[in-house]
């Protein structure tokens, strides 16, 4: 039997992979390839909650949202090299398109690879424009929205509070995107989600369901303004929230934050201790401790009967003696004060544990955010275009907590004006890191003479942020020299319709109509297809990352053959899209049994197919 396969023409579906994981855990729960829920319940025993009144979270449209998540994407991503900077060298990526379709396209290539996700989704204030997910055909809606197909009326709609499904519409939009995003996180990955009071309660519930309540890390309060709004009807809202969840809370550990100069100034060495700088801390506590009441003698000779009323010594009498003999007790300059514990700077943690209150002095505020954007991309637009801006310092604070200098991938699929991309570039410049960003933004139209969409603003911001960094003289890195060279570029990809013809079937059941339809499919590509676009679609749907290298193999003249290599995942394939594949070209390739070769099905004779299938891994289009 000839061993050849067809290339994937749709994105990988999430559910089948989860079913396979379930099959590995509970093989006894499968009968004739299907899940037997009665057997699964038997296997789980008391862990199954079948009570009629049990805790659950649902909303109108949840089933449709799940069905939308389960529908594979038939779209593709097409490179836009003219809009990119250093396309062939950079590892940074900007994707213009609907983020749910984009997440589905990234699923196979980036499963379990993303270290940190930050998103700033619509807050659902009633005025936000919400992309209307079409449960029947989401790609068709996007193509009409972007003018790739004709459409009637405005496809971007607001979600007013008068809507009967105000919260439900927002949840249905968020659920499949968050679910798909979780699949991309590393085991030690983390996601930060900005939100305000309108949906913070629902966001917590939906993230508990998707990520697991046990993986909740924090609900951070970000102080977003520095002065009260006197126009507020009830309260001036000074803060937003940032919901933080880990992919696995047992495996995610935050990076310690650097100590500030103020913190360092608290350490001194008044007694010239050879162990260096130290600070003192209270030896008394209010918690009851059975050995916490005893008298101590000061170096001056004064006896202290015990700790102050209502408190207890933190250590036992024996431990206190050990500390005192080791000169870790500070009795004051005269040796007569209440004892305090000396904590040496050399022995404390190398940094500071993060807290859940982020003050504007430390991470920036909204005015700083708008200034940072307009300094790079000055444009005339209403304040409502970016009504919840985030300062780069806020994102850099997350990067400090969640990433290292290595090639950590940072994802933002509600990219807006691309603050996250700017923050990654600046963070790499500050610490010599090699973080990569992937950002995605819907080309939402705006009323501006210079920029037609928010996506255009985002791309221009990245370009100007790169230009600004290049002009800096301190700490320069060379993009092209060395493995640690600074990456000052980005690839642009755009979401477009597949290069493969969609199978629609004839309008009637006439055999001649079927025959005509089948004949049309001897050429699998849509009219006007381009080799580069097809190669990238094949690569993406076969699980190759967007930083794959595509090289035209010029040494082979009989056919146009391209070599695609994903060095991040250590995989490659060769592809030929010519209508006729010549044996001489195959001989020149010298393919081995582990090599993957892809070509058009009609390009080969049966004999050539049989020989190739024995020689290498063969897939056809």
Q: In one word, what is the shape? A: elongated
User: How many independent structural domains?
Assistant: 3
Task: Give me the side-by-side strand order of the main sheet.
Answer: 4-22-5-21-20-6-9-11-10-19
**Low-pLDDT residue intervals, each spanning 5 or more residues:** none
Mean pLDDT: 88
Structural class: alpha/beta
| CATH class value of the largest domain | Alpha Beta
Write down the CATH topology of the largest domain: Rossmann fold
Query: Helicity level, as a percent range?
Result: 25-40%
Question: How large is the count of helical segments?
Answer: 18
| CATH architecture annotation of the largest domain | 3-Layer(aba) Sandwich
Proportion of residues in extended strands: 15-25%
**Biggest sheet layout:** 10 strands, mixed
CATH H-tier superfamily of the largest domain: Vaccinia Virus protein VP39
Topology overview:
Elements: E1 4-6, H1 14-25, E2 30-31, E3 34-35, H2 37-44, H3 62-70, E4 75-79, E5 93-96, H4 99-110, E6 114-119, E7 129-130, H5 138-145, E8 157-158, H6 166-184, E9 185-195, H7 200-211, E10 216-223, E11 239-246, H8 261-264, E12 278-282, E13 284-285, E14 296-297, E15 303-304, E16 312-313, H9 317-325, E17 329-330, E18 340-344, E19 357-358, H10 360-363, H11 366-376, H12 392-402, E20 409-412, H13 419-431, E21 436-441, H14 454-471, E22 491-497, H15 511-520, H16 531-541, E23 549-552, E24 561-566, E25 571-576, H17 583-589, E26 596-599, H18 606-615, E27 617-620
Parallel strand pairs: 1-27, 5-21, 5-22, 6-9, 6-20, 10-19, 20-21, 25-26, 26-27
Antiparallel strand pairs: 2-3, 4-22, 7-8, 9-11, 10-11, 12-18, 13-16, 14-15, 17-18, 23-24, 24-25
């Amino acid at each position: 039997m000839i061993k050849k396969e067809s290339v994937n023409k749709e994105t990988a579906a999430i559910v089948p992979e989860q079913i396979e994981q379930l099959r590995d855990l509970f093989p006894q729960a499968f009968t004739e390839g299907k899940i037997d829920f009665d057997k699964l319940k038997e296997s789980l025993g008391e862990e199954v909650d079948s009570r009629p009144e049990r805790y659950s979270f649902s909303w109108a449209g949840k089933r449709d949202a799940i069905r939308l998540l389960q529908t594979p994407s038939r779209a593709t991503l097409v490179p836009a090299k003219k809009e990119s900077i250093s396309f062939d060298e950079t590892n940074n990526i900007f994707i213009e398109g609907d983020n749910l379709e984009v997440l589905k396209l990234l699923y196979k290539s980036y499963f379990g690879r993303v270290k940190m996700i930050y998103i700033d989704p619509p807050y659902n204030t009633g005025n936000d424009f919400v992309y209307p997910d079409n449960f029947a055909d989401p790609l068709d809606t996007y193509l009409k929205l972007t003018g790739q197909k004709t459409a009637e009326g405005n496809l971007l709609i607001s979600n007013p509070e008068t809507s009967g499904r105000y919260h439900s519409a927002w949840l249905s939009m968020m659920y499949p995107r968050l679910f798909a995003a979780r699949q991309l996180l590393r085991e030690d990955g983390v996601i930060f989600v900005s939100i305000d009071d309108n949906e913070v309660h629902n966001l917590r519930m939906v993230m508990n369901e998707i990520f697991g309540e046990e993986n909740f890390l924090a609900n951070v309060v970000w102080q977003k303004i520095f002065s009260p709004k006197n126009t507020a009807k009830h309260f001036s809202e000074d803060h937003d929230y940032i919901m933080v969840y880990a992919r696995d809370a047992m495996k995610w550990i935050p990076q310690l934050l650097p100590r500030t100069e103020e913190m360092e100034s608290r350490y001194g060495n008044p007694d010239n201790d050879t162990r260096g700088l130290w600070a003192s801390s209270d030896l008394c506590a209010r918690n009851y401790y059975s050995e916490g009441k005893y008298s101590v003698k000061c170096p001056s000779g004064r006896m202290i009967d015990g700790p102050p009323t209502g408190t207890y010594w933190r250590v036992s009498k024996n431990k206190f003696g050990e500390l005192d003999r080791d000169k870790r007790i500070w009795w004051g300059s005269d040796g007569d004060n209440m004892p305090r514990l000396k904590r040496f700077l050399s022995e404390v943690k190398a940094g500071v544990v993060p807290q859940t209150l982020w003050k504007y002095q430390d991470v920036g505020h909204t005015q700083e955010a708008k200034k940072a954007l307009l300094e790079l991309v000055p444009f005339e637009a209403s304040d409502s275009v970016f009504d919840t801006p985030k300062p780069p310092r806020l994102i850099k604070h997350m990067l400090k907590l969640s990433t290292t200098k290595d090639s950590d991938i940072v994802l933002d699929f509600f990219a807006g004006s691309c603050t996250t991309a700017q923050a990654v570039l600046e963070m790499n410049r500050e610490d010599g890191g090699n973080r990569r960003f992937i950002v995605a933004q819907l080309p939402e139209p705006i009323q501006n003479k210079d920029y037609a969409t928010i996506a255009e603003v985002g791309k221009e911001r990245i370009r100007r942020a790169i230009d600004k960094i290049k002009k800096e003289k301190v700490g320069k890195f060379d993009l092209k020299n060395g493995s640690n060279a600074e990456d000052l570029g980005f690839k642009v990809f755009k979401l477009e319709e597949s290069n493969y013809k969609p199978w629609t079937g004839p309008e009637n059941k006439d055999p001649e109509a079927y025959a005509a339809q089948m004949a049309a499919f001897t050429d699998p590509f849509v009219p006007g297809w381009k080799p580069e676009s097809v190669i990238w679609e094949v690569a993406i749907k076969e699980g190759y990352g967007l930083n794959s290298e595509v090289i035209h193999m010029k040494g082979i003249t009989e056919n146009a053959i391209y070599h695609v290599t994903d060095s991040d995942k250590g995989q490659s394939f060769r592809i030929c899209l010519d209508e006729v594949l010549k044996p001489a070209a195959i001989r020149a390739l010298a393919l081995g049994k582990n090599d993957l070769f892809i070509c058009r099905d009609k390009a080969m004779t049966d004999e050539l197919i049989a020989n190739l299938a024995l020689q290498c891994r063969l897939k056809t289009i």
